[in-house]
TrEMBL record:
PANTHER family reported in the protein's UniProt record: ACONITATE HYDRATASE B
Organism whose genome encodes this protein: Seonamhaeicola maritimus
EC number: 4.2.1.3, 4.2.1.99
Protein name, as recorded: Bifunctional aconitate hydratase 2/2-methylisocitrate dehydratase
GO biological process: propionate catabolic process, 2-methylcitrate cycle; tricarboxylic acid cycle
Domain Aconitase B swivel: residue ranges: 176-407
Example of a GO MF term: aconitate hydratase activity
Length: 926
């Protein structure tokens, strides 16, 4: 009874944290619990019954297999449990979501006992998580003349598992709760520092609002005051869910405000209602759909226009906003799903039809997008077996086709990869389609949730449609602490068994690769026509089109090889002019955001759309700096349009890096990585021969907007500033405040510098090395007046720097160098004024392990400036994370302050920062 006793001990420990028993996923523990249930005199029998019925995870967990087998014994009369009669056993099976439960139900439905078969058939008709093996079993029985198999297939063909569900209620009453003013990062809902607990949903729920117990109590009080209403969580004067693509954030909101998905599965809630003045961030909105929730674009504050239609701005040049209706906390509103309007009493406030489209209404009805995706798949399989056309049950895929209009780059990619659409029909933006996915990436702080999702949807192996799946280890690379040791090996084992390439080898036979996931995905994407899904908002490749996604969408893509999404509108970005020699490409990235906002009167035309950037001459490594930042531009995704020669060079680099992974021993039995090498070689051959040119849009493609960036206007380094003291709190931490270096007058104190994350490439490390040499030559020595933390994004870069001599230069000036044989066991809390050479990975940018000292002003190359992400506040000073180029970061730590332009120009003299210039070639198809 050791396993059960250990569980009881854990329960007592959790009580001290105000937590309930942890849900059971292991076979050994549940087997012991079943033994105690069978023993009528066992003192633990009553508790064991409760654990068995109400606290066992469904799907393909090993516990689910044991539970399904025991329920089968009860139904067949082989075991008798007074409290679990056969009818209740069937009800339990109906909530187990596939895998072992489907196997048991099929055994019973296709068995010889007619009465039992009838009951099993009733339950099976409600299930959607059947896979090819289950369908094959039904097909064989059907062909053998089994009447129940025929009945089931006919039910599935008609999608009765969906049509017989209750309709979505017409009126949903909500009460508002303002979670914050301005953009709300998913860090507020699920802090990065709590990443280790995400798979323990109840424990993780305690971190909502960054552990702000006062806010949590206010939310509970509001719920108690309005027990018949749903709470709508709001970002006032901002966008909800910017930043990371966190399923855990939606899970937390649902846990506190949603409804239970099943009485027999604890802490899994669905159907949250979330809103923002400027809507929901694109990736986060997808996550809301996974749970059958509602995400609303309120537009309760609007920009004021003059008589000529121009935006009115204040003294600081910011658009003047006017409130059109109030959503202050405690306001009761009504969502009408029939009229698709938001009401205050009988007063219509807003058309919210975009939140209640036919596909989204199906997600709400089915309790989430998974059930719809699998339902469509099961319907298709059944109709194929029966040899009949697919009845139109679900809302048809929206197919927008405009005769005579050319295609943008994303429209071309979607047309190539679309499945189930009208043959021969060309699709334009606004269409909503299923597409095949080529590359799928899972990252390590959401990976355990992805593995849980895979178990719950009864998936056991990566879809054969997927070219490659990769499980990273970068978000937990900084500190190999007890939390990582407990979680990461388990995750790697699961994903390795599932068929992914894993950063860490469960057998320990190859060196751990903690490379930043986005960089790895950028390398293993070897076709400019690919679609990539990754469990992180910075899944923004410079080849193909990539979408950051929640852990559930990643699981769905791994299991099915598909994703369903609209074809977004595109914004075309081109360049003119010449770059000054002392400018870095990071300055072009920031200037793009600044100039776009200026050109469109403060309207962010990038938000929710594809940025089609005509990058031309930059290889994928360097171009990634632009595409990566498009997450901060709030774009849905981005696509690089490259010259043929540049694309070939990028693919050769990627292919050679994949070969290094193979040489390390990272390929699997299916030779997934070798398949990518072969695919890269084939694409290179197509480009060189001209048989299939590089992806380009049509000259007559239609864009939502076109932005032309004038390189001549970029006269000094550009810095993204969190503007932490802005009187208007909605303007803080937005990424939209882009300032020139001279704004700081060479006097702003910098307490720590960070060079790392996905925003840098090998060139940045070379710039760092050259600057250190230059400074030594100028001053006789290099002395840091602020700490400089350097985390190379990949081991390949470290190896190349070592081979070329630059790493030796960095070692010369460093006071700390990572050691893979003795990784740090504790996060750093204090920094000395020296250079730290940290392990490849996310480091400070992620904020879940390492952080700057509270109250610091940090100058960083990373992407995150949200409050508390990289640096926390103190009572006396707000932490600041200013984002800039590598040269600015280096010089700021040498000086302990922001440099003047004269100091900056002297420090980069003679260093080639970038070779970027606008392409002189035609990057569209006439």
């Amino acid at each position: 009874m050791n396993t059960y006793n250990d569980y009881i001990k854990e329960i007592e420990e959790r009580k001290g944290q105000g937590l309930h028993p942890k849900p059971i996923d292991g076979a050994e523990l549940l087997s012991e619990i079943i033994s105690q249930i069978k023993d009528s005199s066992n003192p633990h029998r009553e508790d064991s019954l409760k654990f068995f019925i109400y606290n066992t995870l469904p799907g393909t967990t090993s516990a689910a297999g044991v539970k399904a087998k025991f329920l089968k014994e009860i139904i067949l009369g082989e075991s008798v449990v007074e409290e679990i009669i056969p009818a209740f056993a069937f009800e339990q099976l109906s909530h187990m979501k596939g895998g072992p439960s489907i196997e048991v139900l099929l055994d019973l439905a296709l068995g010889s006992d007619v009465a039992i078969a009838e009951e099993a058939t009733k339950v099976l008709k409600t299930q959607v998580f059947l896979y090819e093996a289950d369908a094959e079993r039904l097909e064989n029985a059907y062909k053998a003349g089994n009447a129940i198999a025929k009945e089931l297939l006919e039910s599935y063909a008609q999608a009765e598992f969906f049509t017989k569900l209750p309709e979505v209620e017409e009126k949903i009453e909500v009460v508002t709760f303002i979670a914050g003013t301005g953009d709300i990062s998913t860090d507020l809902l699920s802090p990065g520092a709590d990443a280790h607990s995400r798979s323990d949903r109840e424990l993780h729920g305690q971190c909502l609002f960054e552990h702000n117990k006062e806010m949590q109590q206010e939310l509970l009080a509001l719920k108690a005051q309005h027990p018949d209403k749903r709470v709508m969580l709001i970002a006032e004067k901002g966008t909800m869910g910017v930043g990371s693509s966190r399923m855990s954030g939606v899970n937390n909101v649902a846990l506190w405000t949603g409804v239970s998905s099943s009485p027999y599965v604890p802490f899994i809630n669905i159907a949250p209602v979330i809103a923002g003045t400027n809507g929901i961030a694109p990736i986060f909105l997808t996550t809301v759909g996974v749970t059958g929730g509602i995400g609303i674009d309120l537009k309760n504050w609007v920009q004021q226009k003059d008589e000529n239609g121009n935006t009115i701005v204040d003294a600081d040049g910011e658009p003047v906003l006017k409130q059109t209706y109030s959503v202050e906390t405690g306001t009761v509103l009504t969502i009408n799903t029939k009229t698709k309007k938001l009401y205050s009493g009988d007063i219509e406030l807003k058309d919210i039809s975009t939140a209640l489209t036919p596909p989204k209404m199906e997600f709400i009805k089915a309790g989430g997008s998974y059930a719809v995706v699998f339902g469509k798949k099961l319907q298709t399989l059944s109709c194929k077996i029966l040899g009949i056309d697919i009845p139109q049950v679900y809302a048809p895929s929206k197919e927008v086709s405009i005769e005579g209009q050319g295609l943008t780059a994303v429209e071309k990619i979607f047309n190539k990869n679309a499945v189930g659409t009208t043959p021969g029909k060309t699709l334009h933006a606004g269409s909503n389609v299923r597409v095949e996915v080529n590359i799928v990436g899972s990252q390590d702080t959401t990976g355990l949730m992805t593995s849980q999702e895979l178990e719950m949807m009864a998936a056991t192996i990566v879809s054969p449609i997927v070219d490659a799946g990769y499980q990273s280890g970068c978000h937990t690379a900084s500190v190999w602490d007890d939390k990582s040791k407990a979680n990461i090996p388990r995750l790697m084992q699961f994903m390795n068994d599932f068929g992914l390439i894993t950063a860490r080898d469960p057998k320990g036979q190859y060196h751990a690769m903690t490379d930043v996931i986005h960089k790895v995905l950028n390398d293993i994407t070897v076709d400019d026509w690919d679609i990539i899904i990754g469990g992180d908002s910075h899944t923004r490749m410079s080849k193909g089109v990539a979408f950051g996604a929640d852990s559930g969408t990643v699981a769905l893509a791994l299991a099915t090889g598909e994703a369903t999404m609209p074809i977004p509108e595109s914004v075309k970005v081109t360049f003119k002019g010449d770059m000054k020699s002392f400018m870095d490409f990071r300055d072009v990235v920031h200037a793009t955001q600044q100039q776009m906002l200026k050109q469109f009167g403060g309207e962010n035309v990038f938000q929710g759309r594809i940025i089609e950037v005509h990058i031309g001459t930059l290889t994928a490594d360097q171009a990634f700096t632009f595409t990566d930042w498009t997450a901060e531009m709030k774009a849905k995704a981005s696509i690089c349009i490259s010259e043929e020669e540049t694309l070939v060079e990028s693919l050769e680099i990627a292919r050679d890096r994949i070969q290094i992974m193979i040489d390390k021993g990272m390929d699997n039995e299916k030779q997934m990585l070798q398949g990518l090498v072969d695919k890269a070689n084939n694409r290179i051959q197509e480009l060189n021969s001209g048989s299939k040119p590089a992806l380009k849009p049509d000259a007559d493609a239609k864009y939502y907007a076109e932005v032309v960036i004038d390189l001549d206007e970029i006269a000094e380094p550009m810095i993204a500033d969190p503007d932490v003291n802005n009187d208007d709190v909605s303007k803080r931490y937005t990424h939209d405040t882009i300032r020139p270096l001279s704004y700081y007058g060479g006097t702003k104190q910098v307490d720590l510098g960070f060079i790392g994350s996905c925003m840098i490439h090998k060139g940045d490390m070379q710039i760092l090395a050259q600057m250190l040499k230059n400074i030594e030559a100028q001053y006789g020595k290099v002395e840091f007046k602020a700490p400089l933390v350097v985390a190379p994004p990949t081991y390949n870069i470290v190896d190349e720097l070592k081979a070329e001599g630059d790493w030796e230069i960095l070692q010369k000036y460093s006071g700390f160098e990572f050691n893979d044989n003795a990784p740090k066991g504790l996060a750093r809390t204090k920094y000395e004024n020296m250079l730290y050479l940290e392990r490849p990975g996310c480091n400070l940018c992620m904020g879940n392990q390492e952080k700057a000292e509270p109250g610091d002003t940090v100058m960083a190359t990373s992407t995150r400036l949200f409050q508390g992400r990289v640096v926390k506040d103190t009572d006396g000073k707000k932490g600041e994370s200013l984002l800039s180029s590598t040269p600015v970061v280096v010089l700021s730590t040498i000086l302990g302050r922001t440099p003047t332009m004269e100091e900056y120009e002297a420090a980069v003299d003679g260093i080639v920062l970038t070779k970027f210039k606008p392409s002189q070639k035609q990057l569209v198809l006439a």
